[in-house]
Amino acid sequence: MATILIVDDEPQIVDILSSYLQKDGYHVITATNGNDALEMAAGGQLDLIILDLMLPDISGEEVCGRIRRESRVPILMLTAKSGESDRITGLEIGADDYLVKPFSPRELVARVRAILRRVGDFQSLTDRIEIGDLAVSLREKRVQKQGVTVELTPSEYRLLTTLIRHPGRTWTREELVEEVLGMDFDGYDRTIDTHVKNLRHKLEDDPKRPEYVKTVYGVGYRFETPAK
């Protein structure tokens, strides 16, 4: 049974989400502030965190960033802010998905299922892939560049794994959104672009002139083996 931490200071939302998730078979624990959430996350027994952006003590963004420095547990961020810049900020600090209030509890449960399913799919892989100075151990979910471990968020890891398993293949944004994020592509969402940008900053010697994750203008992205 997967354990999910809900971090929100609104009791009604916590009660509703807890009820829906428990009915779906999840074990739910809750926190009403960021400091309690950080303590619970430090225990390392969580499968997913649902994190509200607005908390009474420290911001959800700070909580997300601090958790991400220590853990790769998937994080679904909740917020009343619907702007694209707010969503991009959440993804850049390590959130895997972003849900704007008000939302349907059923939609949240569907997002949770999709995230945990993707995590489970990748955990079942046992291959090792080496291209250029990158090495990806799918069994251990570890990425190394020139022998040094690179810390990726779960979404960045799934994006890299999707691309690197099919070098030379061009993926459309729609395909990557569905494959990596488990979401329908609306034609305007730039979530996957944000993940690509973050991935390049972590893997490329020069993110502005990427050797691995190439842009196919007007289409999407592909992974290439460096010439050197």
Topology (SSEs and partners):
Layout: E1 3-7, H1 11-23, E2 27-31, H2 34-42, E3 48-52, H3 60-70, E4 75-79, H4 84-92, E5 97-100, H5 105-123, E6 128-131, E7 134-137, E8 142-145, E9 148-150, H6 154-164, E10 170-172, H7 173-181, H8 191-203, E11 213-216, E12 220-223
Parallel strand pairs: 1-2, 1-3, 3-4, 4-5
Antiparallel strand pairs: 6-7, 7-8, 8-9, 10-12, 11-12
Domain OmpR/PhoB-type: 126-225
Keywords: DNA-binding, Phosphoprotein, Transcription, Transcription regulation, Two-component regulatory system
Modified residues (4-aspartylphosphate): 52
Query: Average pLDDT, to the nearest integer?
Result: 85
N-end to C-end Cα span: 47 Å
The geometry reads as: globular
Largest sheet: 5 strands, parallel
Name the assembly state.
Answer: single chain
Proportion of strand residues: 15-25%
Residues in helices, as a percent range: 40-55%
SSE run: EHEHEHEHEHEEEEHEHHEE
User: Strand sequence of the main sheet, in spatial order?
Assistant: 2-1-3-4-5
Put simply, the count of helices is 8
Strand segment tally: 12
Low-confidence stretches: none
Coarse structural class: alpha/beta
Specify Rg, calculated over alpha carbons.
Answer: 18 Å
GO molecular function: phosphorelay response regulator activity; transcription cis-regulatory region binding
Main location: cytoplasm
Pfam families: Response_reg, Trans_reg_C
Protein name: Response regulator transcription factor
Précis, in short:
41% of the residues lie in helices and 22% in strands.
List keywords for this structure.
228 residues, 12 strands, 22% strand, four-stranded antiparallel β-sheet, alpha/beta, five-stranded parallel β-sheet, 8 helices
